[in-house]
Amino acid sequence: MDIQRLLTKIEEIDSKNLNLYFVTRLLKDGLKSNAKVLDKFVFKVYQIEVTDEVRTYLYELSVKQFKKISENKDLEFHDYDVFSDDSEHLFTYPMKNKVMSFSDVVYNQLKGTPQKITDLNEILISEQLWAYCVGFQADSSETLYTFRKISPGKVGVDEKEDHKKKNIINSIRTIFDTTANKLSLLRGETIYLDKQVDCIFHDETFYVLKKGFFEQIVGLQEEYKEQALKYISVIEGNSNFGDIKLLSEKVGNTPSMHKKIVRLQKIGNLDKLNSTGIKKLQTLGRSRKTEINVKDGKIVFETEKDIDNLIKLLCDYYKKGEFSDKVYGTFAGKEYLQ
After folding, report:
1. Which residues span the domain enclosing 267?
2. Is the pLDDT of residue 266 over 70?
3. Do 180 and 38 fall within a single domain?
4. Between the N and C ends of the chain, which has fewer C-beta atoms within 10 Å?
């Protein structure tokens, strides 16, 4: 589905058929925030009643943003990639067969009857406000959802009624009353709803507008870690490697490595590795001052530099411009099929 069809769908929906939801995130029972386990968070969906003014605001800002995107003829949707130059295209991310915690939000909770919020302050004592979601109901069987990440600084509660909540704005909240021309204290809970949409969910697919925020919302970091750790076992079983203990430790303890290992798995260069390939990597490494460590014909890891150099070479980090002959370093890039 292209962005114009998404825009058309929303424009055909009556703004009265719009619902606002808050998505919260909390630790699973029995876990601590620093626990080194996968999928340690759960998400909850709450529906909140809004005035006609807020409903119209949310509807119009969504349509306005989609129009702005659809008017950019250079933008197209592409399959999601962990590393990419996202300046001139958007991404699609299918949720089918995904087992991450956030899948429960889009497949079960939003399609059910979420609890309605009567006391936001009470919820925020134990749960983190994670994102807000707008549901556009086309008919009884079809609903389109947009999501926007909420940062802690966009949430305010009454300190006099809540001494337990940690994510309180560290300042007083005021509003300028135009009827009295005075600055007054703003009491109660406040949530700042940005004029942005990070992603859209429709027909089992996320359409990603803001890549970084999307990854935060759905918890892709955890999925990357799980994929990376699984692929480490593949590397361990590869006869072209010696001891990979240092590599395993770095992947297990370094989130920035997860995407790189997922990238390595996707491009499949490890499958082509043999004695000839190792010699090719050695030659390339010397030419790019990114030498790998080889002993007795096997790749070994004795320093973190050994790891970084090999990942760069196997992930085709160095790319050469055919016209300029300049060499660029980036993990991004998509194979060009003539």
Report:
1. 223-329
2. yes
3. yes
4. C
